[in-house]
Amino acid sequence: MSAGLDPLAHLVATARYFEDFRVGERFNLPSRTMTEALFAAFQLASGDNHPIHYDVEYCRAKGHPGLLAHGFQVAIQTCAGAGILAHQMGEALLGFLEQSARFVRPVHAGDTLYPSLTLSEARVQRTTGVLTFASHVANQRGETVLEGQQRYLLRRRAAA
Which residues contact 130 (CB under 8 A, 6 or more apart)? Predict the structure, then answer.
């Protein structure tokens, strides 16, 4: 490593503590078009072999226009690390506590998803705080396909 290189100077975003976040802040995540290749990759990772996700003719026989995305495949689009949020949490992030998801509409191969996380609650604790984010995914028609929430445990700024 070069003597003048400081790896910590190559951060993507300025780190924030619990107190630096504000209820109502929205964090958009990168959009992604769901492709048959992504469906196949998810099948390999998850081991899910139900034909509704991988057999076009089965899907059509069930009234779908094409392959149907697995619910978890839609939920992972809200991964905080895909955007700037996880970088802003930085070293203050102690843990990902929980998540929930409700699947509102089907997602098919060819749909483009637009995920976001909006800070809905900030609960102060003694030395930490819990941030609750409303998770939302819309498709290219602006229809909600997923809604849920995620909770993270962050350090509070040290007392002066």
Answer: 97, 121, 122, 123, 151, 152, 153, 154
CATH of 15-155, one of 3.10.129.10, 3.30.70.1130, 3.30.1330.40, 3.50.50.60: 3.10.129.10
Is the CB of residue 145 less than 8 Å from the CB of residue 119? no
Give the C-alpha separation, 29 to 114, whole Å.
7
Q: Tell me the per-residue pLDDT of 120-129, one tens digit each, with 9 for 90 and over.
A: 999 999 999 9
Please list the residues that pair with 144 across neighbouring strands. Answer: 138
- Please state whether beta strands 26-28 and 32-33 pair in parallel, antiparallel, or not at all (unpaired): unpaired
Both tokens of residue 66? 């094409």
pLDDT digits (tens, 9 = 90+) for 24-65: 999 999 999 999 999 999 999 999 989 999 899 999 999 999
